[in-house]
Write a structure and sequence with these properties.
Elements: H1 27-48, E1 52-56, E2 59-61, E3 71-74, E4 77-80, E5 86-89, E6 93-96, H2 97-113, E7 134-152, E8 166-181, H3 209-221, E9 242-252, E10 261-270, H4 280-286
Antiparallel strand pairs: 1-4, 2-3, 3-6, 4-5, 7-8, 7-9, 9-10
Length: 295
C-alpha cells in the first residue's frame, strides 16, 4: 500500500498545468495534472452530492450457527467519502467476528501485563458496553490507494547512484473496511447534514417563500450540507471514512483485568443510521416525474 499524495485536505488550489510548445515536462507536471482533475471531481461530488452510500455496502452476518466461524460481511457497493473520493468495493468483504474480538481482548491484556513505554494505549473492551448489555462496534469504509506492479525508473532522493531503481507502475484506488470497538464515552452515528433546515413541507407540498429563504441563508452561511461537522468518529479515527453500520453484540462485562463475555447468537445490525446519496432519477420520481414506461 502507499500513502496517497493527494489527500484533498485541505482542498487543493485549482492549479492547472499550462502547456506550451517545446516546454519540458517533468513528473511534477503530470502529477499536478492528475491532482487538478481529481481535486475538482472530489470537490464537485462532496459539495453537490455530499458523502455517504451510493449503493450496496450492506453490513450483515453470514448466519453461521457455529459462532466461532460467524462472519460479518459487507456486500459490494459504492460510496463517496467526506472529502469527495469514490470508494468502490467490487466484492464481498468479510471477517470472522469471534477471532477479531479475541484478538482485541488479547492485545489489551498483553498491554496491561507488559506495558511498553510510548506504545499507544489500547482501551478496555469492557467500556464498549454502553448499555450494560451489548458490545458496540461500528463498521467504516475508507479510501486506500495501493501500488500495483513495478517498473524500472531513474534513481532519486538519496540513492542517485543506484542502477536497479524501481517504482510502482500504477496506483489502484482501493478501499479498507474497518471494524471499530466503540470504547469512547459518547459514540454517535452520523448526523443529518441538513438537520438545521427549519421546515420541511409535507410530501407533495411546495416550499414556502420563508422555507426557501431559510435554505438559501444556510447555504450562504455554509452552515449545513457538506459544511456540517462530522460527529460519528472515535477519537483519532480517519475522519474521511464512511460510516456503514452499528452492531450491538450481547455481552456481559468481565471482572478486573478480564475481557467481556459475548454471545454471537444475539447480534443486531443497524444499517439505516448511515448517510445515503440519492440518485437524481429517484428524486425526480419521488417528485412526480417519471421516465420510461411506468407499470
Amino acid at each position: 500500500m502507499a500513502t496517497d499524495d493527494l489527500t484533498l485536505i485541505p482542498p487543493l488550489a485549482p492549479n492547472r498545468v499550462f502547456y506550451s510548445t517545446g516546454r519540458m515536462l517533468g513528473v511534477e507536471d503530470f502529477q499536478a495534472d492528475q491532482d487538478y482533475h481529481r481535486g475538482r471531481l472530489a470537490r464537485a461530488l462532496v459539495q453537490l452530492y455530499g458523502a455517504g452510500t451510493v449503493s450496496g455496502l450492506l453490513v450483515q452476518t453470514d448466519g453461521n450457527t457455529n459462532t466461532f466461524q460467524l462472519e460479518v460481511q459487507v456486500t459490494p457497493g459504492m460510496a463517496v467519502d467526506r472529502i469527495g473520493r469514490i470508494i468502490e468495493v467490487p466484492r464481498m468483504v468479510c471477517i470472522v467476528l469471534n477471532d477479531w474480538l479475541n484478538q482485541y481482548v488479547q492485545a489489551w491484556q498483553n498491554q496491561q501485563n507488559n506495558p511498553v513505554p510510548g506504545q499507544p494505549s489500547i482501551a478496555d473492551p469492557n467500556t464498549a458496553i454502553h448499555d450494560g448489555a451489548n458490545l458496540m462496534c461500528d463498521v467504516f469504509a475508507s479510501f486506500v490507494p495501493c501500488t500495483r506492479g513495478i517498473t524500472p525508473c531513474f534513481a532519486s532522493q538519496d540513492d542517485y547512484d543506484a542502477t536497479d531503481a524501481f517504482s510502482a507502475n500504477r496506483l489502484l484506488d482501493s478501499f479498507a473496511m474497518q471494524l471499530a470497538l466503540r470504547t469512547d464515552a459518547d459514540p454517535l452515528t452520523p448526523a443529518d447534514p441538513w438537520r438545521t433546515v427549519a421546515a420541511r413541507p409535507a410530501a407533495g407540498s411546495p416550499l414556502t417563500a420563508a422555507d426557501a429563504a431559510n435554505i438559501q441563508t444556510l447555504l450562504m452561511q455554509a452552515a449545513a450540507g457538506p459544511a456540517a461537522p462530522p460527529v460519528e468518529y472515535p477519537p483519532g479515527f480517519d475522519f474521511s471514512a464512511v460510516f456503514l453500520a452499528r452492531m450491538l453484540i450481547a455481552a456481559t462485562p468481565g471482572a478486573a483485568g478480564k475481557g467481556p463475555t459475548w454471545d454471537l447468537t444475539k447480534i443486531s445490525i443497524d444499517n439505516h443510521s448511515r448517510m445515503f446519496l440519492y440518485p437524481a432519477a429517484l428524486l425526480a420520481r419521488l417528485s412526480g416525474l417519471g421516465s420510461g414506461t411506468d407499470t
